[in-house]
Amino acid sequence: MAKIGFIGLGQMGSGMCRNLIKGGHQLKVYDCAEAAVQNMVDAGAEAATSARAAAEGAEVVFTMLPIGDIVYQTVFGPDGIAEGISNDAIYVDMSTILPEETRNIGRKLAEQGVAMVDAPVGRTSAHAVAGTSTFMVGGDKEHVQRVMPYLECMGECITHCGPLGTGATVKLVNNYISAVCNLVTAEGMALGLAAGADQDTMVEVISQTPAGLGHIKTTWPAKALADDPSPAFMLDLARKDLGLALTAAADAKVPLATGSVTREIYNIASAAGHGREDWTTGIYRTVKHLANAT
Ligand code: NAD
């Protein structure tokens, strides 16, 4: 059983605290909303009157707060975590904030000898309540290992992504892909509906293809991830199909904003000589080249 400080008892934090209490840990909690603190006291936590008080005497201190500025203020502001946390304790931020905001907080805490881990969370508040959140974790291996038992109380699929801030980076990448897939799915479905296709039928078909299953586990492993240009499906043919969808959408007066931008990138890829390559490898090579990424 560990003494844990926990700050930020909203949609996510309240469920997570309950799971830590269920795991046998002793929680001292703080939130600027008194009702949120009272809820956790009713669940078995001790109330703290500030972030500093929640951090005092704790072996590990968690924050689950809305944005980076609030996290920074909660750590370094008056009566903040930095004033109360012991040098033996580890600070874990689980909020979704920028990697650079995370690294900045970590650097400042390191100056006073305190270690930090970032562990942003995947899935929703329903999973936080059920204890099935996912975690993308950044920090030194030794620090990550120390906080692992607590993360395991709150979730599953816990991935150590690399040094401090890489949890935030992977979370941001994941959410970016997810948000854009959400929009492009809506665009495609709207095109189908406007052109007279049935929604359930489209779902039945798309559920069996990379469009519905996602590329990372279907088309990418053998081609883009292996940097193999030999085509399972040629980029120029995908470019042609994209053009067909955009023509059909123009006829049906359906906006395909994502598709329009996508076609320009396919054009760039083709013009750069990737047209006869596999569509996934050609696109990945093109975007990595534009991004100067390896
Ligand atoms: P929330 O708004 O429900 O909870 C935030 C809590 O922080 C509130 O209880 C609020 O009173 C408290 N708070 C705000 N400012 C404070 C301060 N200065 N001092 C003390 N307490 C303060 O938000 P949430 O949904 O729990 O999300 C928290 C973080 O988790 C966000 O970064 C969010 O992007 C991320 N996240 C949310 C979900 C989700 O499904 N809700 C999923 C994954 C990640």
UniProtKB/TrEMBL annotation:
Domain 6-phosphogluconate dehydrogenase NADP-binding: 3-162
Keyword Lipid biosynthesis in annotation: no
Active site: residue positions: 171
The entry's keywords: NAD, Oxidoreductase
GO molecular function: NAD binding; NADP binding; oxidoreductase activity, acting on the CH-OH group of donors, NAD or NADP as acceptor
Xref: SUPFAM superfamilies: 6-phosphogluconate dehydrogenase C-terminal domain-like (SSF48179), NAD(P)-binding Rossmann-fold domains (SSF51735)
Domain (3-hydroxyisobutyrate dehydrogenase-like NAD-binding): residue spans on this chain: 165-280
Gene3D superfamilies: N-(1-d-carboxylethyl)-l-norvaline Dehydrogenase, domain 2, NAD(P)-binding Rossmann-like Domain
Protein name: 4-hydroxybutyrate dehydrogenase / sulfolactaldehyde 3-reductase
Organism listed in the record: Celeribacter halophilus
